[in-house]
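step: validate -> pass
step: tokenize input -> pass
step: predict -> running
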Amino acid sequence: MNKKIITALLVGATVLPALQGCFPLVAAGVATGVLATFDRRSLGAQTDDETIEWKASSRVGKEIGGHVSFASYNRKLLMTGEVPSAEAKAEAERIAAALTNVHSVYNEVVVGPASSYTERSNDLFITSKVKGRFVDNGKFNPVHVKVVSEAGVVYLLGMVTQGEADAAIAIARTTSGVKKVVNLLDIITPAEARELDVTQKNNAPKDSRAP
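step: predict -> pass
step: emit ->
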């Protein structure tokens, strides 16, 4: 797939859900759908991750408040953002951990005032820069690494080989504006990676148009 197209899809899938209105949501869904065919997660895991994120945001937002964001990858849930107290942080984790299909929780929430719109916009910009550099680097498929930025800290999730992990971490660490990189990547062998890539390619929708 063309580098410019991959970059647009990756950035679009990150930024559009943060905007309001029906069109951005539809566009983000299209981008996510295209990228899903290259994802090493099973379609079931991808569906579970989307459901986990939605339920966590809904339930924690309703009961805790504050500003908490959720990113699930292969049923492992990352929590970032700010809450007013240590008790609220613990309760947010309890609620998230109790959700169906959540295998583990990374609680990176901090106690403090909610971040500003400017700070959140800057984090989105950092995420887009990291993803863009993944594409330009060309050493691994950027779809395999999920990037989350919060207060200048970049979190990396995904199923990658050690070589892919090393490349992703090095790129993120040297991206302007990044204060710290937290490695949450799951390491798989090159043989496992090849098998997963072939499986997803075979499961991808076929073009029904005549040649």
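step: describe -> The domain at 42-114 is CATH 3.30.1340.30 (Histidine-containing Protein; Chain: A;).
step: cleanup -> pass
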